[in-house]
Amino acid sequence: MTQTVSARFYDRFALWIATGIGVGLFAPAPGTLGSLWGLPLAILLGTLQQPISQLATIAALILVAVVIASRAAGVLGGSKDPQAIVIDEFAILPIAYFGVGPLDWKLLLTGWLLFRLFDITKPPPCKKAEQLPGGWGIVADDVVAAIYACLALHVFIWLDAALSLDWLNS
Predict the structure, then answer these.
(1) Which of 2, 18, 75, 151 is least surrounded by CB atoms within 10 angstroms?
(2) Whose CA is closest to 93, among 149, 164, 160, 11?
């Protein structure tokens, strides 16, 4: 009996976290709204001075997201990638800002928009990454989208400086 109560608690907890405290259950465009929870995580990641610290934090976020997404997907009926699960959106978003440094609202907005663009359009190998089993498939396509967003954000920052656009400095 205790194990059943404990298992139900963990199922509910996983579902609560995986859905972004319920955002994924009720919101239109749950991935887009759920990804906003990742902005505070990205800000915290930006305060880490050492790239190895950022990578370790990102690795931990990925592993936690995989475990929680797997459990929550089971609770929701075992669907391959339930739309209500948004932990893959918010836990992975900080990857888009890797190596950028301290973030202001313009960098946050630009990185978030780039992440959403790549997550929605799913350029290769995002679709292939979705085919991984369980939580790995739920999270992996977002990891790839965030890597694309990170690369694009670094190019944007470089272009902004090289062409003296000053979009990021004004």
Answers:
(1) 2
(2) 149
Tell me how far apart the alpha carbons of residues 17 and 23 are, in angstroms, rounded to a whole number: 10
What is the residue-wise DSSP string for 16-41? HHHTTTTHHHH-SSHHHHHHTTHHHH
139 is written with which tokens?
């999270």
Distance CA 127, CA 145 (A): 10
Question: Dmax of the chain from CA atoms?
Answer: 66
Query: Tokens 């979009």 correspond to what residue?
Result: 167
Q: Which residues contact 80 (CB under 8 A, 6 or more apart)?
A: 73, 130, 137, 138
Report the alpha-carbon angle 57-11-29, nearest 5: 70
Q: Give the model confidence (pLDDT) of 49-61 as tens digits.
A: 899 999 999 999 9
Question: Can you read off the two tokens belonging to residue 140?
Answer: 């992996």
Task: Please give the mean pLDDT across all residues of the chain.
Answer: 90
pLDDT digits (tens, 9 = 90+) for 99-120: 998 899 999 999 999 999 999 9
Q: How much is the pTM?
A: 0.90
d(CA 85, CA 12): 13
Query: CB-based burial of residue 118 (10 Å sphere; 0-12 exposed, 13-18 middle, 19+ buried)?
Result: buried
